[in-house]
Amino acid sequence: MTEAPIDAHGDALDELVAGYHRFRRSTWPDRRLLLEGLASRGQKPLAVVIACADSRLDPSSIFDAAPGALFVVRNVANLVPPYQPDAAYHGTSAALEFAVKGLGISTIMVLGHAQCGGVAALLADKAGALTDFVMPWMQIAARARARAWQTGATAAERQTACEHETVKVSLENLMTFPWVADAVAAGQLRLQGAYYGIATGVLQLLGPDGVFQPLMAGSTLTESR
């Protein structure tokens, strides 16, 4: 007897539908008033979080944030491109403009993470099948790759160093946006780099000295600086 082939697509869709039903049974009743309020009043998030699209990274879970608290912008390797208003498509830049100019959000966090696949591809300089968009996109972090090769003695050290440096590159590029730089200069906007260990659950914050340090239990962002 021949077994029927597994329909991976069907299994994935079934999981999504089952998850929706769990949401309606368990989560929606508890959050109904919150979500209805957000629908009627509109959104006013606390912060922008620029994060990687990696499925293992969930900013809302990391910061225990309810719906409406975070304006999350996700892309490969949590990169911010330089300010370049032209006729091309700029999803990350458009999201930033909406958050800063449209919503008036006063904090932007760039959240890097361990085991980033985009960073690994950049360090290896091997596109494989990722030639159309991923590798051209990762060239935003070319100087992060150069810094990592200068500071990392082993492959693991270079990976971590490059993940840290991509956060710094994104922070540098944020300051090329005139309305970001102006808001920072006026004290109306704060930029913060962070790094999350997927296996450890530890969040590190980038200090003024350019070093990432673990956020200690019970401490605040101000205390960690």
What can you tell me about this protein's structure?
With 225 residues, the protein is α/β, with parallel strands linked by helices. The protein has a single domain, classed as 3-Layer(aba) Sandwich (Beta-carbonic Anhydrase, Chain A). It is 47% helix and 15% strand. It is built from nine helices and six strands; from the N terminus they run H-E-H-E-H-E-H-H-H-H-H-E-E-E-H. It has a six-stranded mixed sheet, covered by helices on one side. The longest helix has 34 residues, at 8-41. The chain is globular and about 55 Å long.
Give the gist of this structure.
With 225 residues, the chain is an alpha/beta fold. 47% of the residues lie in helices and 15% in strands.
Strand content: 5-15%
Number of helices: 9
CATH class: Alpha Beta
Largest sheet: 6 strands, mixed
Descriptive tags:
225 residues, alpha/beta, Beta-carbonic Anhydrase, Chain A, 6-stranded mixed β-sheet, 9 helices
Question: What's the structural blueprint in terms of helices and strands?
Answer:
Elements: H1 8-41, E1 47-52, H2 59-62, E2 70-75, H3 91-102, E3 107-113, H4 117-124, H5 134-138, H6 142-151, H7 155-174, H8 178-185, E4 190-196, E5 203-206, E6 212-214, H9 221-224
Parallel strand pairs: 1-2, 1-3, 3-4
Antiparallel strand pairs: 4-5, 5-6
